[in-house]
Amino acid sequence: MRGTPITDREAYPAAWITLAALAGAFLLWRFALGAPTVSRCWIWEHWHVYCPGCGGTRALIALAHGQIGEALWCHLPVVVTLVLAAAYLLTQTVWRLRGKRGWALHYRPSWPVLLVGLFLVNCLVRNVLWLGFGIPL
Ligand SMILES: [Zn+2]
Q1: What residues does the ion ligand 1 have nearby, CB within 5 Å?
Q2: What does each of the 137 residues of the chain score in pLDDT, given as a tens digit?
């Protein structure tokens, strides 16, 4: 049984709440905790294979330093997710401020499926490169 699909009515505030929570977590990590070293991935440490999130933190750090190529190399799905989220929030905000006139990116229920698929394909490719050819992340 499927519920009512998520629309902009739910996705737009959820995106802002997620952004605020992530900003709060960053501020907590940076200022309250004194920016401790982020521990390595448990899956990588124990099994020496990449999980779907491996490289995500490095991609975020690279993006923060303006190194887009490095960020794409570290974790392409993180960059795609951030660009999509930024485009969604920006166009939706402008669209709402203009009285819902003009063009805006509208949330589609297929987005989470596509993004999860991108994360899994990225994980598979990384592990094939690592285990098959010895190319590390
Ligand atoms: Zn990992």
Answers
A1: 41, 43-44, 51, 54
A2: 578 889 999 999 999 999 999 999 999 999 999 999 988 899 999 999 999 999 999 999 999 999 999 999 999 999 999 999 999 999 999 999 999 999 999 999 999 999 999 999 999 999 999 999 999 88
Sequence ranges of the domains in the chain: 42-133
CA distance 115 to 80: 8
**Measured CA distances, 20 to 14, 31, 108 (Å):** 10, 16, 22
* Cα of 105 from ligand 1 centre, angstroms: 31
Gap between the Cα atoms of 113 and 16, Å rounded:
20
